[in-house]
Amino acid sequence: DDAARRQINQMAEFIKLEARQKAEEIRVKTDHECETLKQLTVAKRKAQLRDQYKRLQAKAKSQLRKDESKVLNDERIRRLRHQDGLLTDLSRDARSKMERFVAAGGEPYADLLPALAGQAIAQIAGREKVAADVELRVRGCDVDLLGDGGAKDAQGRSKLRSKLRSAVKAAMVEALRREAETSARARAEAEADTPEAGAAAAAKAGEAAVADAELPEAVWVKADTRLEADGGRVGGGVIVSASAGRIVVDNSLHARLALVTHELQHVLRAALFPASEAAEE
User: Phi and psi dihedrals of 214, rounded to 5?
Assistant: First the structure.
């Protein structure tokens, strides 16, 4: 019995030892797997956090750029509105001065009307052969300034007629001269390839244009209510038509002011706001 008991105890101790060793192996393996899983989980979470941080950082940078762009754009719009307001005030001041000039009348305005008529007829002459009859439309109170009733005696009426014809001729000659000189200079420089030859040919063509310049045979003056001052419209000036009304040139003061205001926008901005113009370029 004692031998059997000892044998049983030995077997029990052996089994316990095997169990403890096995339990230790399982614990070590479990700890290793747990540590590996923990490391993988931590690495995965770190990668997710890095990606999330990058997305949030990119979003924040994008929003910052948008905010900066909006601030700059709002400032640019505010500055442009301010500049437009100044240009509008400048245009309004020019219109007021022109209205006062027209209202004052007198010799300066009386001299201006023939010049405006001459420029308009010169523009018509640049499109086709000058028509025999040209019609000038002016304000009702300006009819006498261009017609025979503009002076109290025959000498004065003749002087007004002569002034009108001189203005027309001067404007036509100048327009024809510029056109002839431009075409002659381009043609001569293309053929001879020298500026001197182009200038000489241009001068010769200009002289020929002056000699060949034609004037309308008759100039009619009529009143037109469109040239009267009305609200924001500046009165005065002349509207010239030819070829039975087929060609019309609006040389009224209102049209001239609008044209100058439009054409000089860039020049005025560059002169008044040089820093803004330089920044935009």
Answer: -115, 155
Residues in CB range of 186: below 8 A, 6 or more apart: 198
Count of H helices and E strands in the chain? 8, 4
Using alpha carbons, select from 82, 277, 83, 132 the residue that is nearest to residue 124. Answer: 132
DSSP annotation string for 194-252: -HHHHHHHHHHHHHHHHHH----SEEEEEE-GGGS-BTTBPP-EEEEEETTTTEEEEEE
pLDDT tens, position by position, 228-281: 777 666 788 888 888 777 888 888 888 888 888 888 888 888 888 876 655 555
CA distance 50 to 28: 33
For the CA atoms of the chain, what is the radius of gyration? 46
